[in-house]
Amino acid sequence: MIGNTIRHTVFDGGITAEHIDIKEGADGTVVEYCYFNGTGMTGDNSADSFIDVKGVNSVIRYNEGYRNGNTKVADAFQVRTHGSKYPTGKDNTFYNNKVNLDNAPGYVVNATSAATGTKAHDDVRIGGGNLYNKNVNK
Question: Where are the beta strands (DSSP E) in the chain?
Answer without folding.
Answer: 5-7, 10-12, 20-22, 30-32, 35-37, 49-53, 59-61, 64-66, 75-79, 93-95, 98-100, 109-111, 119-121, 124-125
